[in-house]
Amino acid sequence: MGIPHEKLLIKKLIGNKVHFIAWSLFIVYETLVIGLVYNIFGNPFTYLLHYAVIISFFYLLCEYLLPWSVNTKVSRWWRLPVALSIYLLGYIFFHYLADLLLIHTGAIVDEGKNPLNYQFVLKNIYRGLYFMGFSCGYFLIKERFKVRREQEILRQEHLNNIIEHQRTEQELSDTQNAYLKSQINPHFLFNTLDFIYHNIKGSPEIASEGIIHLSRLMRYAIDSDKQGKFINLGEELKHVETLLHLYRMRKNDNFNLKFEYGKETKHLTFIPLVLLTITENVLKHGDFSNRDHGACIRLYTDRENFYIESTNRTGNHSRSISSGKGIKNIHQRLIYAYGTDIVFQSNTDLLNQYSLNIRIPLKEIQKNSV
Question: Domain named Signal transduction histidine kinase internal region: which ranges (predicted)?
């Protein structure tokens, strides 16, 4: 706590030093000019006393009277004239007292006349207005710098708040993203172990192949965090194909699901586990009992957007037990990654036909291209 106070004291002393030098130069300049031009050099005590009055009223006006008069808008119209009048009358009066003191001490010659006369008043009004202008100018400059300092402090605080807000949002996004992915990962295991279990005795070759595919999927899901926030979409497309292959093995190709994507989608940079979760959701809740009503997962782009669409028929039982958590998680993750400009629509119609439509601006995806 001692360091800030020491810095403040040093700064104040430096500021006072500047004032002292400025006044000293002004007094020396004015004294020499008047003395050389008019060949008049007075008693040093005379200069000391009168300049003490000048300097005192200079700071009285700029440090107290002007702030008192202008810092309120309501009564500024009468306070400012009162402040300037107090300054000018006080300036004349104290110079009069200074002359009386100088006469009393013999520093100036007493000619038997009262120094408070017409000439004295005019001279001090002129000098008073002269230094009043300097004092008002100094006050305005100081107020100007004060306003600029306050604005700079506010700008800096605003900038710091923005930086802190962005940092907090990013940390929240990273934490939430990791949490959501940790919720998604177990789905791959629980939805395929049953298939392997039922084939491990009767069809060990199929079970062995299933274990290999499952291990690849699990390794990909578990290691997704290590790959970074974004991956090449082509990598996940391969694992979606692996997941579909597992289901075809389980159903003996007795289910109708089309997985379509354009070649351009392979090169997009995307957040991981979205497509796997959508595919797993279709396989988990889709009704494939009627081959005429199959499912479809489709990925494509146009000039401005990337589209993910899925359709599948659902049964009443599947819909009743579904919490929709996986789809909600996808929606949240996409917002965190690509902002609120995405379009995310899911709906189940009266014929139990479920559809999911996602549209993401390509410019948002390209910001994170690898």
Answer: 178-255
